[in-house]
Gamma-glutamyltransferase
Amino acid sequence: MPDVSIAAPNEAAADAGEQIARAGGNAVDAAIAASLVTMVNEVGLVSLSSGGFVTVQPPDGSAPQTVDGWMDMPGRGRALGGGTWDVDTEYGGGVTVTIGAGSVATHGSVAAFEETHRRWGSLPWRELVTPAIDVARRGFHLSSASRYYLDYVHDDIFGWDDESRAAVHDADGAVTTGLVDLHDLAASLELIAADGAAALHTGEIGRLISDDVIRRGGILGADDLADYRPVVRPSLISRVGDWTFGTNPPPSVGGVCVTAMLRLLDGRPYGPWDADDVAHLVRVQRAVLGHRLDVLDVSADLVHDAGAFLALVDRDHLAVLESGSTAHVSATDSDGGACSVTVSSGYSSGMIARGTGIWLNNCLGEQELNARGLHGLAPGTRLLSNMAPTVGHHVDGSALAIGSPGADRITTAIVQALAGFVNGGLGLQEAINHPRVHVHRAGRPDEVVKTETELSMYYGGVAATLRRPSASAGSAGAMVAAADPRRDGAVRLVHGPTPGPPTAV
C-alpha cells in the first residue's frame, strides 16, 4: 500500500481519494475516484456529461502519457444548427455563451478514466465509482465555486429546464442552501460502476441522453456516442532546471500554451517574484496568448502549427516576445506515480437528460473555444480545450502533479504556480497562494492586464501534489498536497502501513 497525497476541489472529493488510498489504491485510483465525485457535486462546473484529460507520470520514471477524453463534435448524419440560444452573463468578467440541446457535445471523460484505470490503476473499477454513488445517494450542498457561478446564471442557464430549476432553487427562486437531490444520478452511477464507460456510450444512459437531446432539437445521436474513443498520446515535454514536465499535447491548445510560457520564462523568477519578473511574465502571456488567439484557435492543422510555434520559442525567444469552467484533481504516491486530471462540462447547457440525473454540457456553445462557429467542425472532430493537466519528474526522483480549472486562466495559473515553486524557491502551497496576473484578450484592442489584489476564483484553482525523493511507505514529510485558497480546495495525506505525521508545507 503506497502513501498517497491528494488535492481536490472539495472535501467530499478529497474524502473519496482518501477512501480509495486507504483501500490500497495508488495515485491514479485516488485521482479518478475524487474526480468522479466532482462530477456529482461541482454543479455547473462539471458532470458525467463532460470531457477531460488525464496526464500520468508512471512510477517507473518512464515518459508521461496523456489520455484525451475531450469532447467530439457530434452530428453524424444530421442537419446541423438549431436547438440553441445565447445568454450574456457577467461571470468571468463578462461572457456570452450558447446553451440548449444543440450545444451538447459528445462526452468522453469517463471513457478516459476507464482507459487510464486499465493502464495504471490497481483497484477494481467498481470501487472507484462507489464514493460518487454514496454522495449522489445522500445528496449534497453546493460548493462555493458552484454557488459563485450559479449566482450569475441560475435563472438564465439553469432555470429553463424544469428538473434543473427544481434541483438548484429553493421555493422562493433563490439558489438553494439545502441539499441537492438528483434522484436518478445514483442509479446512473450504479450502471457506470457495473458496465464502465459503455453505459454512457452504448448502454442505457447513452440512449437516454441522445434521445432527450434529439427530442429537444440537438444533434448528439447514438452513433456519436457509440463511435467515441479516448486517445492516449505522449505528453508534451518541457524541461525547467532539473524538472521534466509533461502536459496535454495537441489537439488541446492548453498544454501548448503552458509549455511555451515555461520555456519563455527562461528560469524566472530568480528568487521571490519582483517587479521585473512580473513585467516579463506579462510579456510572455501577451506573446503566447496573442499567438493562440491569432493562430492556434483558428488552425486547420494544430499539430503542425503548435510544433512550429514551439520551435520558434526554442530558436528565438526575443522574436516571440516582441510579436503582437472546470474541476481539477492531483495525486501522487510514494511509488513515484503522479496523476493530474482536469474535466469540464463547459458552462452547462442547462438541461438534465431525462431519467439520468445528469446535467448535460454545452461545450459546442463555449464561443471562445469554437472559432469556427457553433457547429463549424466535422462530426467526430475533437474540440479545442484550455486544459493542461501536468505532471513532473525530477532527477532526484521527485514526482509532481498539478493543474487548474479556470477557462483561459488555466494556463497562466499553472505556469505562475510552477515558476514560483521551481524557480522562485517557494514552497508548493506558497507558490499556489501567491497573487497572479492574467493578460485577458492578449493583443486585442480591448486587452486588459488583470492583477490580483485579493484572492479570487477568477484566477483559477490550482491543485498540486508532490512526492519528495525520500518517499517510502510511511516516511514523514515525503508526501505533500496543496490546494488553492481561491476555491474550496481540500487535501489529504494517506500513509502506508508505518504511518508518520504529515508535514506542513
